[in-house]
Design a protein that fits this description.
The chain is an alpha+beta fold. The chain is 48% helix and 23% strand. The protein has one domain (5-76). The chain has helices at residues 11-19, 42-52, 60-76, and strands at 5-8, 24-30, 33-39. It is globular and about 30 Å long.
């Protein structure tokens, strides 16, 4: 079974996705930057749309935790 993936360099989008229950599939180097990889789906594309259209809502403390965890990964990885 092959997995279709979607990527982003946007740590805020990645944190939003993690906050909403999407698991980070991989973290890749892209030069000096990091590329966050998630399993793609129609639901994930709707999540991205909500994020970019300013329709996403978060629990502030859970979102802050997701950002901190991703930042720690980028430093270690």
């Amino acid at each position: 079974m092959t997995t279709t993936e979607t990527t982003t360099q946007d740590i805020w989008l990645a944190a939003f996705a993690c906050h909403k229950g999407y698991e980070l599939f991989d973290l890749r180097k892209l030069g000096e930057r990091k590329l966050f990889v998630f399993e793609d789906s129609e639901e994930f594309q709707l999540l991205k749309r909500d994020y970019y259209w300013h329709k996403g809502q978060v629990d502030p403390l859970k979102f802050k935790k997701a950002i901190r965890e991703l930042k720690a990964l980028t430093i270690r990885g």
